[in-house]
Amino acid sequence: MCRIPLVLAVLLPTAVFAQSAPLPRIDFNASGGSGGNGSGVGTASAGGRIVLPPGWTLSIHTITIRYAPNGGGATLNAFVPVKGLQFTLDTNLTSGNYKIWAVIDVKDADGKERQISSDPSNVNIQ
User: Fold this and answer.
1) Tell me: the pLDDT tens digits for 25-40?
2) What is the pTM of this model?
3) Domains contained in the chain, number
4) Is 5 part of a structural domain of the chain?
5) Spacing of C-alpha 42 from chain mean position
6) What are φ and ψ of residue 12, in 5° steps?
7) Are 84 and 94 contacting, i.e. CB atoms less than 8 angstroms apart?
8) b/e map 60-84, b = 16+ CB within 10 Å
9) Which range of residues forms the domain containing residue 56?
């Protein structure tokens, strides 16, 4: 009979750990295109949606889209209003390869600020 509390003491924390709460995320898509006429400028399209688990909220309603040329250099930051939980942006960039990702601040169910970001997308502008 004294084995039941021991078994519960081992299994209960394991069950709680296995049911951890989902985390917020940014579903992000980016693509690049040509500006045509050999201008050396093209368009990068970025957009997506923010997925918040119950209890989580946006800290601000502006998402930052970051553009970094592959191989280093300065990062261009664009600020986009979030409508509902969705966002879109078209940006003119000079020809090249870029990493593009999104960043936003959210609050968890306890009111703690956290920053989340999407996975970077590689985009070629021609």
Assistant:
1) 999 999 998 877 777 8
2) 0.81
3) 1
4) no
5) 23
6) -65, -50
7) no
8) eeebbbbbbbeeeeeeeebebeeee
9) 22-125
CA-based nearest residue to 101, from 75, 73, 72, 74: 75
Question: What is the strand order of the sheet 25-32 is part of?
Answer: 25-32, 41-51, 86-94
Rounded Cα–Cα distance for residues 77 and 97 (Å): 16
| CATH number, domain with residue 54 | 2.60.40.1470
Residue type for 51, please?
A: V
Tokens matching residue 55: 């209890």
Query: Where are the strands (E) in 1-95, listed by range?
Result: 25-32, 41-51, 57-58, 62-69, 76-81, 86-94
Q: What would the pLDDT profile of 90-103 be if each residue is shown by its tens digit?
A: 999 999 999 999 99
